[in-house]
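ERR on first pass: missing label on line 2. Operator R.T. fixed the label and resubmitted. Corrected input:
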Amino acid sequence: MKVTFDSYKPGEEIPVVQYLKNRKLRKYFNRETEAALVGVGKLTRNIELSPETPFYYATGVMEYEDYGLEEIVRNSTDEPDGFSHKLFIEEAIPRVSPLNLFKVLQNMALSFIAIEHNLIGDNAVIYTSASGLLLLALHSSFNDHMLLGASKTYKDGKVEAGFAFVLKEEIEKSPFLYSTGKAVDMFRSWVSSKGD
Amino acid sequence: MGRVVITGAGAVSPIGNNFEEVMEGIRDGKRGIGTIQSIDTCHLPGNVGAEVRENGKPLLTESHIDRKEIFITRAVDELIKNCGSIHRYPPEKRFIHIGAGHDYLDLIGYTNSNDKVTGKWIDYSKSGHIIVKGLAKTNEIKGGFSVNVTTCVAATQAMGTSFRLLKRLSAGNVIITGGFDSVINHLHYMAFYKLGAMSKWKGEPGHACRPFDKNRSGLVLGEGAGVFLLQDAEDVFAGEGLAEIVGYSSTMDAYKVTDPHPEGKYLARAAINAIEEAGLRSADIDCVHLHGTGTYKNAIAETNAMRQIFPERWAEIPVFSMKGQIGHLIGACGALEMIGVIYSLKYQQVPPTVNFEEQAPEAPLLVIKDKPLHMKIDHVLKLNSAFGGQNSALVVKRYVE
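pass 2 clean. output:
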């Protein structure tokens, strides 16, 4: 099994540009998507990914900060009355870039990785669960290496992303198959156990 | 490997508040799209949506309520009430794998709170994960749960991966699957509006979503939930089976996050893979229930996919889209549309696509118009595609005991 796991401190630059073929895509990314693209880039450095490779991904909750929540709230507030529908439409929403939706939709990391690495195979995005992620791979009809990934943004702005290129035999042996743990923790554990 | 049978359903939708009502809504060509009343639309640039109704009026909720939680709770309650078979399984053999839409955020409550000062918005947000975890606990489902969030294919993928799981686990296990969503709130409505995806129809709201029609102008957002009980055929008692899932596949366009692949290449591939998994040929498919959003590009992509799936008879095979009636339920669309599939198999009909009036020259499919097409239907192909480029296909068979 080949595994990567990266953790970025709040505000730390994520070197996504080094791993992008199409740099114009960067405008669509939040930090979690950037971390994910770096993770896959590192993982596949010496691997020829078949386009048919299944790709299963676990993500966390929608990060409303990335949609511009702070600005929306600020510009929708009519003191002392609070939220104003009129201000929301006339002042807040015009300040939100249409691109921000791409920063919060939960399938975007998977979508951009598919575009960057030309992946056209089986896929799914689920919430957070390590066992759920492993089950998706285990029940796939594909019998070669599969790409698994997970990412998470923490409350303080820390971002983590992990990826693995795995076979079903490796999954069948994993204790995470029976755990209620988070997928991103599984990748951290896999990397630690390899001594990377 | 087992045979996977749908043995029960529960639903909440803009055209009916239980499974039977939705089936009747399909039969009657009921329109669930209207003027939005559950949120204040006076300043919104549009006011058309497909809301869940009670006693003929849109369900009204306070801003701190995540509407999709109401819908999935009601749908699961209906399913469990009507499907005594689930009680034949111990809690450890019960699973729930559901597709969910966007996390809800109580924008009004958060804006009016002091928490906005510290940016503590998470307490005003609710994820599908938390909701499904709660449902699993309430209903003693201890085999496992997961929540698929692949946007518009979330429900289809949840049903497809549940099919795979049950095929492998075989008899003695039961799965609740389907999807739930509501995007009728200020934040989500405006997000879709800013993408330019919403219908620009100026006439009657009920006519705003027009799949494959020459005058289609975009999608209409909807809400609801649909759930199904999946059992292995060995566990199914006489009279319980509604339909059988026989094939599933999912692919990615790897093209653009904003548009479907115009050639429909990988949507076609998902369909062909699912048909192959079912041990069928494309000639065995009797009709196709398409994604049919009502957008210009969707119709072209699906038409091109149809050409590849059915090279000889792509223009002759009847197709249907339910979105003219219920709008686009995003994370729940595949689930509600599965009821359309069950309808076709049960009543041996392809329903007319509501609001399809004039053939679009760029999408010359056999879209059924005005009245249902009665025909022998053994296999239905169900397709859905997601914003972001994911495609999913299910092949569903008429259940024979």
